[in-house]
Every structure is written in structure tokens, then in C-alpha cells.
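User: My collaborator and I are trying to settle a disagreement about how two of our proteins should look. Neither of us wants to argue from intuition anymore, so we agreed to look at predicted structures for both before our next call. Could you fold the first one, then the second, and keep them clearly separated?

Assistant: That sounds like a sensible way to settle it. I'll keep them separate. The first protein:
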Amino acid sequence: MCETHMQKVCSVVIALNETVENFCEGNTRKIMSSYKSAFEKEREADELKRKILAEMYGKIIHPLDQEHIARLILTADDIASNAKAAAMKIGLFVNPKSVSAELRESMKKFSENLVGIAMRTYDALRLLGKDRKAAIKAADEVEKTEELIDEFRAKEVYPKLLEWFKKTCNIGLSLLVKEIIDNMENLADRCEDVGDIVRFIALSL
């Protein structure tokens, strides 16, 4: 069930990427469609999260195991929540024409990297019940990917964001776009956190 939940979480990240791609292309109709897809997929992940937690606490499981599983599910849920939040802000509040093409392109590359780290996180979780060493190795890859994303954000996204800030006089829009990028950053951070939990569980087996 945890593996299925992470699959659904990844589908939310993919829907965010589609939203950002449509945003980069300036296709407002497709932006709304992909945002709604992110919203629906996040709701599906939420429903499964609640089911897992309810079923887990209805069974005899060691308290420490319960805690680790709960942390795993709730942290993975944060990935989906940040993906949905970013997609929602793009879909409902930001006109693509109001953001520079350079910044939109950087956001597109950023979101593509997020799909990559989400899928690596899924691999780490999937391997946890099959191959402990492989799960640890996959978790290490998640951590390395997060570091590369941090570097990309610092070198590619922030400079274009600051350049756009200087040109726009809309403070509210500036703050909103910064929040979108923060959501995307938090998404990557939560993937790393899930990888850390997977590594901890694998080492404890």
C-alpha cells in the first residue's frame, strides 16, 4: 500500500510538470486541465494515506514500526501537497505572459528534475521490501539528485527570478511566483527526507 501511495504521489509531481510545461508554452487551457489533474491525483493520494494509517493502527504492529511507516507516508504526502500547491498557484493565479520566458524555461527544467527525483524516491521505497542494499543505494541516489537540484536552483532559477523581479512592478505576483518556486524546492527536500527514512528502515532490518 505504501508503494501504491508513492506511485500516486509521483503522478501528482508528473501533473505539476505538465502544468509547468503548459505554463512555459503559454497554453492557458492546458494549464487548467493539468492543474485539475494534479488536484485530483493529490486527492487520491490523500485517500490512500488515510486508509493506510487507519489500517495500520488497527493491527498489532510494534510502536517503532508504526512510527516509521507513519513518517514515511506523511512525508511522502508532503511531496504531493507541495506539487499540488505549486500547480494550483500556476493554474489559478499566474498569467504566463506576466512572467519572463527565461524564468518560465528555468521553471520547466526545474519541474522536469522534480519528476526525476520523485521517481528515484519511488524506486527506493519499492526496493525496500525486496533488496535492502539496493534500497539504500537508491536512497543515496535521491540525496545526490536533491543536491544537484539545489545547485540548479541556485545557479539557474534564482538569477532569472531576481532579474524578473527587477522588471516587474507587481509585488503580489512576485511573491506568488517565489512561493511556487518554494513549493518546488520543498518537494525536492521532502523526497530527500523520504529517502532518509527508507535508508533508516533498511539499515534497521
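The second protein, kept apart from the first:
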Amino acid sequence: MNRTRLRNLCRRIESCRRSQPKAKDLVAIARALGRKKADRGKEPTYESTEFPELRPLSIPMHKGRDLPTGTRNSILSQLDEDVTAWEERLSRQERINGDGGRGK
């Protein structure tokens, strides 16, 4: 992950806030942030492989129907937590390496 990729993911999250994304769009963002599908719960659940301290994220898949607004906002808020965790990690790496965010 680098700053450019993270910025692009932030734009996608903000775009989802202004529209009605399908569950598959949210899953794509979650995977791009390092989440993998976990075998737990009633709904498809995604766990962060990079940040195990983050809560698991459930994204309901209801045959292409729109997600309820509250569910969508909750999922996007959790994805924002992932972004924050990545920003903190990148800042730490930049301080250590002095590479201006060009590292992993």
C-alpha cells in the first residue's frame, strides 16, 4: 500500500457515500484495504490481514438489492477505520525510512 493507492481508495469510499453502492463494490474496497473473507457468521465477513485488531466487517449480499442506508454507512465507517490504520502505518514507515510514502 502507498499514499497514492490509499488516496484513490478514499475517493472510492467518498463516492460510495454519495451514491447507493452495491455490496460487491464495498467488498472490492474491503479487499483492496487488505481484508480477506472469513468463514464465520451468517453474512459474508471480512477480516483484516494487516490489522488484526480491527473488527471483522460483515457485508450482506442480498441478490443485488441496495443496502439499507444505515448498513451502508456502518460499513463505510468501518472502511474509514481501515484507511486510518493504513495512514498511521504509512506515517510510521515514512518517519523511519524517510521515503516520502514511496514504500510498501
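Some points you might bring to the call about the second protein. The mean pLDDT is 91. The first strand starts at residue 35 and ends at 38.
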